[in-house]
Amino acid sequence: MRRLLNTLYVSTQGAYLRKEGETVVIEVEKEIRLRLPLLNLGGIVCFGNILCSPFLLGACAEAGIALSFLTEHGRHLADVVGAPSGNVLLRRAQYRRADDPAASAALARAFIAGKIANARHVLRRAAREGATDAASIEAVADTLGHRLRALTAADNLDTLRGLEGESAAQYFSVFSHLITQQRDAFTFGDRNRRPPLDRVNALLSYLYTLLRFDAAGALTAHGLDPAVGFLHRDRPGRAGLALDLIEEFRAPLADRIALTLINRQQIQPQHFRTTETGAVLFTDDGRKEILTAWQKRKQEEIEHPFLGEKIPIGLLLHSQALLLARHLRGDLDAYPPFEWR
Questions:
Q1: In what order do the strands lie in the sheet with 16-20?
Q2: For the chain, which domains are there?
Q3: What rounded mean pLDDT belongs to the chain?
């Protein structure tokens, strides 16, 4: 496996990033705050009013360092990437598979199976660890088991999406029971976004954005086109394949980090602010807490059930992108989704 490269997250408004030799320098009000070797970076994510020099943009594109620009509250705006990597024959195989409804359904089924299986894992772990109303949580976990079995008989994308939607609704129907601390401040009714209207949804949406960025980088690194998905169909400005890939990781990675931050009181009400339109956003301190927890979690190791080796959690998306590429090339009969254990 490739070594784990770091992602640099820049959220200080007015920061200026420039290239100096083989390093990236971050300045705030003409004062140097950080200097990092480009060699150690796998990506740079800029939130809000962040400026980058043309020389840095060119160096990142040449070095294969993905650079993304998002609004201050995490809405994706644009990416700067270099020339596509990998074999053009792999991308052509991806496009042909995406144009084949039956082949797309087979891959969509795998992504959804991984999502449902990992959501069950999160629920059952929470029930064992003292979540409120464990009986309701176990009941939903059993229902998700039925949805998993129903996937085997689903042979088209519409049916598969229906099962995925039903499973997500069931999962989030008991999500509030997984919050055991600060329950008055972190209430959760249902999933809402664009913009998020409560603190829990703001936290989930922010973590999903980080996950999508890492997925797009992993897919690009292994020669795949992040825009052309199988479950998520083509839409201008949407990274469909990146959204496909993160389905397996939403619950066990992003949701678990969100719950840990809330239940350990690492993230608190003062880390949020509400706009006049009702959108709930993070303060600078709130973003720093989330990004610190995100990077720390990615350094932890886990055994990959298919590869049979321990790898950092931050490389799981790379491992799945590699397995997907091998499947599309014909080296694997099927794509094996990652199942958390």
A1: 31-37, 23-28, 16-20, 51-52
A2: 6-80 (3.100.10.20), 88-329 (1.20.120.920)
A3: 88
